[in-house]
Each structure stands twice: as C-alpha cells, then as structure tokens.
Inverse folding.
C-alpha cells in the first residue's frame, strides 16, 4: 500500500547518479551556505539551475513541484510578511499596511533561498541511495575513530534515523485509521481531544520501541555487526567529475558573490 | 487501483470480496469507509455520499487487518469500551456494560472480561477487536482479512462470530483470500480481477469457478473438491457448514472406497 515518496531515491544513470555520494554531500553543504551569501538574482538562478538538475536526473517537473509544494505555504507567509513589514520606499498602501520596495526584494530573496535549499536537498535525495549515503557518511566520519567513536555506528544511526521517519509516519497513519475505524473520536469536547491525543501518542511510543527492538534483533540475527569489516558492493572512487562538479559550483557561487548578484 | 468497480450491497447482506494479495481488497474497503476517496465516481451509504471516515463513524465500523497490533488497554472490557470513552455523553458504567454485551455477541463469556488482551489467543483477540466495533452500534461492518494469521480453530471461531452478526441483521462486507469459511453464510460474492470488481454467482459452482479463475485465484479448496467430485459423479454442496462439508466428503469417500 505504501508508495515511495517522490523525493526519495529514484534509481537512474544520470550524471548526478554517478557522482560520488561524498561529493554530493559536500556539494549540498556548499550550496546551502552559498545561497545565503548571494543576492536575490543569484538565489533565483540557483533555484532554476537546481530545478534543471532534478529534471536532468530524470525526476521530471513533477518532483520539482512536489518539493516546492511542500514549502509553498511557508514561502507565501515569508513573502507576505517581508513585503509588508520591511520599512523603506512605499509603493502601495492599503489602510495601515504599506508595501515597500525593500520588503518586496527581501521577500523575493528569502523565497528564492528557501526554494533553492529545498531543491538542492531534493537533488541529493533523488539521486543518492541510502546505501551510498551511509557509506559516504561512514567515510566522512572516519576521523572520529581517533576519539574512540566507530564511524560505521554513527553512519548506521544516521541512516536508520532517516529511514525511521517515513516508517513512523506510516505507523501513525495506520494507528489513526485503526482508532477511527473503531469509533474513537478525535474531535469534540476539549476532554475528548486530549484523550484522543493520548490514544495516539502512548501507543505510538510503544510501537516504535517495539519496532526498534525487532529491527535490532533482525539485524543481529542476520549477522550484522557495525564493527566488523564490510564490503561495499559498488566501491565508488572519487573521480575527476566529482572534483569538476564541486569546482564548478564553487566558481558559480563565488562569481555571484563577487558580482553581488 | 480500480478501473471500474460498481456494486450495490443491500442492508442485512453479507458480501464477501476475494482477490489475491495486492489486488485491491483493502483499497476497496478504504473507499467504502471513506479512508481514501475515489478519483472519480461516488461511494454511497444509505443514499448519501461517504466522504470521510469521521463522518460515517456511527454507521460504519471498520476492522483493519490484524487489528490486535493496536491493542493497548490492560483489560478486555476497557479495550472494547475504548471508543465509547471518547463520547462525552456515555458514562463509564454504561460503556462497560455495552462492552460486555458486545463480548457476549462474539462468543466470549464473562471469564474474559478482566483478562489482559495480551494473553489471549489470536482468534480471541480478533473477536475482541470485532466486539470493539460492535459497541459503536454501527449497522455496517467492514472486515479486512478477519481470518488472517489464525489457526484452524481460531478461524472457525471468528467465522462463527461473523455469521452470528449476519444472522442478527448486520450488513457485513468481508475482504478475504480464504473463501471457504464464508461460503456457508455469504449472500454475495465478489472477486477482483485486473482492477475490476466481478460478481460471482454463489448457486452455480462451475461459473463460480470461472469467475474465481478470472481473478487468478486458485479457487478455494471446497470449490476444487466439488469440481473434482463432479467428475466422479458425486455432488458436494460447497455452501454447507464446515462440519457438514467434512461429512459429505467422508460419505463420498466411503462410497468410492466401498
């Protein structure tokens, strides 16, 4: 019944799919910082390029739409509040509220930045499998071994946490369905609402604890141990294209920054 | 999921929907309960559109697959009375007495009332879950795979409880891939084939078999057996009760052997 979320990994062979997961992780960090040092034109350009990358990776415009729809309400609120609340040259006035030129620019800037951020993370999540991501994380945390932490364990915790979110959402929806189906009402008096919340959360905590125990048991039963050496099925090497991709991004961000776009 | 699905189920009927895993049985019940909405077309309940589960909850109760996963009260009575406690007009006393009455209906006597549901057998848990639907006074019961994961005894007990509900006048829709336990008391039979809903005639074994084959369901054991028996000139009534069907087979065998 559960359909894959449109922003999770989509197998493919595009240029972005073939990049090293570490390169993509580092790239995501760079872009996330980058969109905050560039101006409104730079951020808008970034959003357009990133949307293009999603399409290029085979995600189609639908996935761009899904990513943006997720934050649409937030974008509207950010734009309107900025447009109305920034002091500056007044362009239009309705009663007590004034729309300022500075406000419009600030609203545009924040929207473009947020859109670029969401699209950049969608680029990575669509083109990188969780297996590759955890292997990248593991290598990324390799220096942590010196202070007594096991990189494989850190990577495992992070990737399990990411995996657990959709699982918990499914579980919560199924629980809500089961309760509603047997006549539990979540609306009505204040007391009924509080009781309804209690009916949702207490079992959800128990269910997730039970799930995590089962998962741990299943992993151990299959002989998985994070401290034992693992062999990766596809061992990615850092290639020239990874360096090129990062350098190109750096150049673009740098140019936009210097030119004040 | 469905290219077309049209059916009318009348009050007081027991309709059984069968199909292979993933064929859309749960989706069909979700549509009927208002959990999901159709992309086109309507689902009507007593002439008005279903809309959402919240809207029809007094009239419809829905047993999701493996409902015992979501048990969390510590006594059987409070588990069954759960829904009533979210109704402000119903006091604790009344809620518990209605819960007890519902438990008797599904054949669980008062020795079960104070037990912890965790320690019941799966068949008993399933009946507790059905009792939890009955306290809402819903006239329409949707049951998703009520026999899944039960042993022989458990599934006979649960099927018997469902049969008693039908006899008492409830409208019941069962989604299942195990047909046999329901053949005795089902009024209508539907099969899902290639995302279409087909109705199968219950009075004619051969066309029943054809519809089930179209749904690529390896027909039930009873139907296979009765078709085989026909080849040997014997007649088995597929709609007999479990015990009668076994007796028929025993007699047929005895006749052959002798």
């Amino acid at each position: 019944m559960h359909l894959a979320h449109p922003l999770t990994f989509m197998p493919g062979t595009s240029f972005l799919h073939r990049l090293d997961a570490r390169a993509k992780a580092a790239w995501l960090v760079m872009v996330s910082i980058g969109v905050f040092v560039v101006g409104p034109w730079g951020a808008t350009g970034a959003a357009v390029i990133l949307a293009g990358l999603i399409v290029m990776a085979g995600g189609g415009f639908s996935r761009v739409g899904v990513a943006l729809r997720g934050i649409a309400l937030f974008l509207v609120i950010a734009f309107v509040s900025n447009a109305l609340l920034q002091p500056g040259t007044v362009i239009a006035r309705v009663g007590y509220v004034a729309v300022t030129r500075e406000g419009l620019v600030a609203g545009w800037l924040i929207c473009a930045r947020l859109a670029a951020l969401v699209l950049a993370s969608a680029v990575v999540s669509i083109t990188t499998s969780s297996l590759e991501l955890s292997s990248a994380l593991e290598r990324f945390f390799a220096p942590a071994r010196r202070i007594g932490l096991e990189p494989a364990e850190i990577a495992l915790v992070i990737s399990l946490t990411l995996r657990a979110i959709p699982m918990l959402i499914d579980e919560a929806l199924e629980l809500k369905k089961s309760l509603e189906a047997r006549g539990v009402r979540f609306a009505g008096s204040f007391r009924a609402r509080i009781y309804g919340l209690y009916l949702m959360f207490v079992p959800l905590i128990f269910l997730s604890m039970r799930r995590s125990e089962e998962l741990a048991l299943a992993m151990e039963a299959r002989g998985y141990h994070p401290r034992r050496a693992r062999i990766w099925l596809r061992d990615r090497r850092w290639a020239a294209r990874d360096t090129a991709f990062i350098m190109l991004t750096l150049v673009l961000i740098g140019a936009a920054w210097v030119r004040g776009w | 999921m469905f290219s077309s699905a049209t059916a009318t189920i009348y009050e007081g009927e027991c309709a059984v929907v069968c199909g292979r895993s993933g064929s859309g049985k749960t989706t069909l019940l979700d549509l009927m309960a208002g959990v999901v909405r159709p992309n086109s077309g309507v689902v009507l309940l007593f002439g008005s559109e279903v809309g959402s589960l919240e809207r029809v909850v007094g009239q419809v109760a829905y047993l999701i697959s493996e409902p015992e996963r979501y048990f969390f009260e510590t006594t059987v009575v409070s588990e069954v009375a759960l829904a009533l406690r979210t109704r402000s007009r119903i006091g604790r006393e009344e809620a518990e007495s209605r819960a007890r009455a519902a438990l008797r209906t599904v054949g669980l006597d008062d020795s079960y009332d104070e037990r912890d549901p965790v320690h019941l057998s799966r068949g008993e848990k399933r009946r507790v879950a059905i009792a939890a639907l009955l306290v809402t006074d819903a006239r329409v019961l949707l049951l998703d795979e009520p026999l899944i994961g039960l042993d022989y005894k458990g599934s006979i007990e649960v099927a018997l409880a469902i049969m008693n509900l039908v006899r008492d006048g409830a409208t019941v829709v069962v989604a299942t891939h195990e047909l046999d336990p329901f053949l005795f008391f089902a009024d209508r039979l539907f099969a899902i084939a290639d995302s279409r809903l087909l109705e199968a005639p219950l009075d004619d074994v051969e066309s029943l078999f054809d519809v089930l084959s179209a749904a690529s369901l390896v027909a039930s054991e009873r139907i296979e057996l009765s078709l085989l028996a026909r080849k040997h000139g014997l007649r088995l009534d597929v709609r007999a009760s479990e015990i009668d069907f076994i007796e028929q087979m025993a007699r047929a065998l005895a006749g052959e052997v002798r």
Summary: Chain A has a mean pLDDT of 83.
